[in-house]
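Extended Data, panel c. Modelled sequence:
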Amino acid sequence: MLLFENKEQKLLNLLNFTGSPFKKFVSTGEIEEDIGLVQSREEFLHSIISILDKNENVILPIIGDVGTGKTHLYWALKHELYYYNIVFISLENVVKKFYYNIYSEFIENMGIDILRNISRRLCNNWGALERKFGFFHVAEINKVKKVACEEWAPKFENEESIMDIINAITAHQLDPYKKIEVERWFLGEVIDIRDLSRLNLKNDLRKRDNAYTMLKVLVENAMVNSVLFIDDFEKIVSMMKPIPIEEQKEEVFDKSWLYGSSESPQKRSANKILDKIVKLNNINGLRIIITLKSFDFYEEIIRKFEDIDSNLLKLIKKPIILSNFDDDDVFTFYKKNLEFFFGHLNYFDYFRDFSQSYFPLNKEVLKNIFIQTKGNPREIIKFLIKIFNDIIFSNEELEEILKKYQ
């Protein structure tokens, strides 16, 4: 008995030295989450994966209240679908330069090697492997460009953007003196007019049509399925709603003098974003997941999509509801977090000594946490942060601390 008490004290001393296993309660798309899913979320995850696998183009709404773990779901999908190219964006961060920001996220996620491979395969398909003199490999760049233009003309809308991308791809593969500069262009870097002229290009990827066309080329030729995960999609609806009368300020002049209509700049911006998202569905193989906070937002979004293009409703799947944790999930979530935390510290005695225990908490405390938070994951984490902070920083005995939470 004394030996086990010493093991408990050793774990408490380690916590005093390292800090709490629960240090944050908000998951983000930038900071990777390594904690796996609880049992009730496994079936939920598999239903999403099934829809993505069966549909080449789809819009899948996921509805979940604040703190239910929508962003954590992204990391679970990313870990499970390691053979997919999954990109996370928050809608408020891509209001400006929409296509450029999405393309940048895809490139950062995929890496330059994917682009090099795409460039090589496209040029080969356009005839770059033909030998002009029979033995030495000397391709006719103008002939390759001509074949590319004939092939791509029916697929893309903007002719200037098509030519920029064809010129970039052929220069990258067939002109070794321009390869490095073209890769800078591929990566979305700002290119000055002089360098653009030397590469025979009109614009870099900051131009909207160039960014969209390059995104389409990337997704359709990457030879890997792509998913765009758009978080907080309900912001579109919020931007479109009129400002309440009590929040409106007295205007000296009519805004329509500047904007040409009575619409607010925010609403006009929201409508443009919605149009751009609709256009993304013309990219073959791009699956889109949107997260919403309520069913009311979902119905509003459906109406907006229907106003733009009723055919789009065929791509929108029935929403999947992300509920709060079940009562058993609290125990699984707690144990997984502790196992990850102590495993990361190489404190493997934890797995031997406490594999069947909830120490330093107990079952009664965890049950009470579930009741108090109604199973909301974010609130559960906030509760656990508070308890562990008390354990680490309070001078009270552990038993006295736990009594307050039972």
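The CA atoms of residues 20 and 59 lie 39 Å apart. This feature is highlighted in the accompanying rendering.
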